[in-house]
TrEMBL record:
Belongs to the type-B carboxylesterase/lipase family. Gene3D superfamilies: alpha/beta hydrolase. GO terms for molecular function: hydrolase activity. PANTHER family: CARBOXYLESTERASE. Keywords: Hydrolase. It comes from the Bacteria. Residues 7-481 form the Carboxylesterase type B domain. This is Carboxylic ester hydrolase. Its EC number is 3.1.1.-.
């Protein structure tokens, strides 16, 4: 029942917030965990929130990090990434969903995806209400995106987006008990770019001790860029903006000008070579903006930090979807139009052995588009996730989401992002003629997957054995069984 006459109030370290209650769930939206990143704070470390007097309203989500949402063909993408949100300065904020009368409950902190350039804590698919229904205190955060969050500009602290996430986790440690959560039982989880960030945070020296478990959904720690390579992007963007490649230069341009520049370099014609010394672009062109290594956040690549024992005390659940890249090439109509030469050319922009890749993934009767999509799914998502699991020295479990969406005439399949409505038990947000999950997705699977996440966050329990390179046990979520997975052809190209 909703009680508008007695809205819940909670005292945080910066002041009291007032939320709302419905059906036994208390909801607090738009709570600041850091000061607005504008003015002198725009290209600086996250600063403490200025305390407020009285009680702050926390019933509206507030603004999100500036970004632009482009139309997506054939599917309604708004439930996954939001509608672009409202513009405003005070966007380093978070949402909290908590059971009424909660005390000492497990905590889950969600980091949204979007290629490090779009997305927000308020996307409908990642509403935390049903986690709270099942006894979890659920938190979702915003963080800086694009140029302001992930461009290593000379004179600017690097990896500001990751530093925002760390600041949010520090806020959780300091404040979540007041919302009924246990600060000693925190699980951080994320999807896509959010999963990449979580994978990085597991290995980051600055994040040690802030969480005990991590869930990495369609991500891994390989999508990090060498600082020197990333400087090519800095130089290119400075030319687009017609400024010096410095803090003052970028700070002299408006938010809209920066968003224009992001679109310019992200477009297919926005030519820029971001391959490393081995001729590999670890992102395969999906995003220009990713975390960099070589600073205090990530002194080395995550897998190299694992070799030094970093992150070994964190329990990890990591996985991928069986047909990740279908999201990018099926609704757009690209997959059936790809021919062999074009497919090799696209792969060659990120992987020097393109011809060998296509040969390794060829099947009798398969089109070039089918071969390309399967190959890139493994190269970008599935195989690097296995390498991450093998490198992590703590307990690590691996899953595969294998349910096939019937959307796009049955061709969308187990695509990127399809696990989200099952994890959050929010199938209604992606159901329909243009819904990612089609018209009749299985609620029993959502109930089961959601429960797996709840149980893992509660005490680390999972109904299958940890991953190791000998037994290679992977749990198929739809089939509801573990398998011994064979080494993928991608192993010959990514080590």
């Amino acid at each position: 029942m909703t009680d508008p006459q007695n809205p819940p109030e909670v005292a945080t370290s910066a002041g009291t917030v007032r939320g709302s209650t419905a059906n036994g769930i208390r909801t607090f939206l738009g709570i600041p965990y850091a000061a607005p990143p504008v003015g002198p704070n725009r290209f600086d470390l996250p600063k403490p929130v200025v305390p407020w007097d009285g009680t702050r309203d926390a019933t509206q989500p507030g603004p999100c990090a500036p970004h632009r949402i482009s139309p997506f063909p054939a599917l309604d993408a708004e439930p996954l990434v939001g509608d672009g949100g409202t513009r405003g300065d005070d966007y380093l904020t978070l949402n909290v969903w908590t059971p009424e009368d909660a005390a000492g409950r497990p905590v889950m902190v969600f980091i949204h995806g979007g290629g490090f350039v779009i997305g927000s804590k308020d996307a409908p698919v990642s509403d935390g209400t049903n986690f709270a229904r099942d006894g979890i205190v659920c938190v979702a955060i915003n963080y800086r995106l694009g140029i302001e969050g992930f461009l290593p500009i000379p004179g600017v602290p690097t990896n500001l987006g990751l530093r925002d996430m760390i600041a949010a986790l520090e806020w959780v440690r300091a404040n979540i008990a007041a919302f009924g959560g246990d600060p000693a039982n925190v699980t951080v989880f994320g999807e896509s770019a959010g999963a990449m960030a979580v994978a990085d945070l597991v290995a980051s020296p600055l994040a040690q001790g802030l969480f005990g478990r991590a869930i990495v959904q369609s991500g891994h720690g390989r999508m990090v860029r060498d600082m020197d390579v990333a400087q090519r992007l800095v130089t290119r963007l400075a030319k687009v903006l017609k400024v010096a490649p410095t803090r003052d230069g970028f700070a002299s341009r408006s938010t809209d000008a920066l968003l224009d520049a992001v679109q310019a370099v992200s477009a297919p014609k926005g030519k820029i070579d971001l391959r490393d010394a081995d001729g590999v672009d670890p992102v395969f062109g999906i995003s220009r903006f990713i975390p960099v290594f070589g600073d205090d956040v990530l002194p080395e690549k995550p897998v190299d930090l694992f070799a030094r024992g970093m992150g070994k005390d964190v329990q990890v659940l990591i996985g991928s979807n069986a047909e990740e890249m279908n999201l990018y090439f099926v609704p757009t109509g690209v997959r059936p139009k790809l021919f062999g030469l074009l497919a090799r050319w696209i792969i060659g922009k990120s992987q020097p052995n393109a011809r060998a890749v296509m040969k390794a993934y060829a099947r009798p009767g398969a089109s070039a588009g089918d071969t390309f999509t399967r190959a890139v799914t493994d190269l970008v998502f599935r195989w690097p996730a296995r390498l991450y699991a093998a490198a992590h020295r703590g307990r690590t479990h691996l899953y595969e989401f294998d349910w096939r969406s019937p959307a796009c005439d049955g061709e969308l399949g187990a695509c990127h992002g399809i696990e989200l409505p099952f994890v959050f038990d929010t199938l209604s947000t992606t159901t329909g003629e243009r819904g990612l999950a089609g018209t009749n997705p299985p609620q029993d699977l959502a109930t089961r997957v959601h429960r797996l996440w709840v149980d893992f966050a509660t005490d680390g329990s999972l109904p299958w054995k940890p991953f190791d390179t000998e037994t290679r046990q992977v749990f198929q979520l739809s089939a509801d069984k573990p398998i011994q997975e064979a080494v993928m052809p991608a192993a010959a190209f990514i080590r």
